[in-house]
């Protein structure tokens, strides 16, 4: 019932918590559902109905459950079940059944074609709920429809399911099919992959193996919770001990294909949210900046790289306003915020 309401509203998340009505997040805003408050015992019964015996056991042991739940004809949902002060609670994130195309998510074909390179490293970044997974899925869909290759996706939990077109797509879920991102990535290198998608560049070991995979002839996709290209490069390098950072900068400089940093802004008509992106392409000059530790110069490289598909967040905001996708006030406020951070 509540998950159907989430899909029908066009919302992104459903919150179920003790002694309050269900709450939907629609276009970034929380909206209570017109329903009575849910007692703790009712909440537990309702949540347990959709869990497997193994998942219930995890709950009984006080652990969280991360998984996907599917309702035929309605949709797929990423769910997190957890304990809080007054009992069990849950948050469900709606996952579109149909993978969006690059046109639908607003990625140009010039940028998407970078994903067809034989090897490299594409990183999609942004805050939680900024649409990183949707953008990655669209890029994988583009590869799937335009190249004959073996694609291995590693996610926690598994979100988008791709139909085989020109490519073969192997889906693996951390927890269900493998113990960790790093184990799955290491194993993937023995599975004849051409393209590897990592749901999250979670730790030093995963990042290290991802860099090695890109170095050894694979196209690797991954996500980070960073706000822009410069911060992403710095974060990857700084994860490693000081005595290894120069080596990692060298590795990253040789494999980086693109960094797509994105956020969602409220649409002008109030009926949705619009993706706004900063895009960095790994040109020779950008790679030299990474190798030589000149990260502060990356922004200037983006400003001068428009012909290659690069763009700053400010330019994306201005374009969205010009096309009538976002309001002038929203654009002005966000550009002011960006200027204060530089």
Word description of this protein:
It is a single chain. The protein is of the alpha/beta class and 342 residues long. It folds into 2 domains: 2-95, Beta-Lactamase, CATH 3.30.450; 102-341, P-loop containing nucleotide triphosphate hydrolases (Rossmann fold, 3-Layer(aba) Sandwich). Helix content is 37%, strand content 25%. The chain has 14 helices and 13 strands. It has helices spanning 2-9, 40-48, 53-60, 102-105, 109-112, 132-146, 181-188, 204-215, 229-238, 245-255, 284-291, 298-303, 313-322, 328-341, and strands spanning 13-16, 23-26, 29-32, 65-71, 75-84, 87-95, 120-125, 150-155, 168-173, 195-198, 219-224, 256-266, 273-281. The strands form 2 sheets. It has a 7-stranded mixed β-sheet, sandwiched between helices. Helix 9 (229-238) crosses helix 10 and helix 10 packs antiparallel against helix 11 (284-291). The chain starts with a helix and ends with a helix. The mean pLDDT is 93.
How would the blueprint of this fold be written?
Layout: H1 2-9, E1 13-16, E2 23-26, E3 29-32, H2 40-48, H3 53-60, E4 65-71, E5 75-84, E6 87-95, H4 102-105, H5 109-112, E7 120-125, H6 132-146, E8 150-155, E9 168-173, H7 181-188, E10 195-198, H8 204-215, E11 219-224, H9 229-238, H10 245-255, E12 256-266, E13 273-281, H11 284-291, H12 298-303, H13 313-322, H14 328-341
Parallel strand pairs: 7-11, 7-12, 8-9, 8-10, 10-11
Antiparallel strand pairs: 1-2, 1-6, 2-3, 4-5, 5-6, 12-13
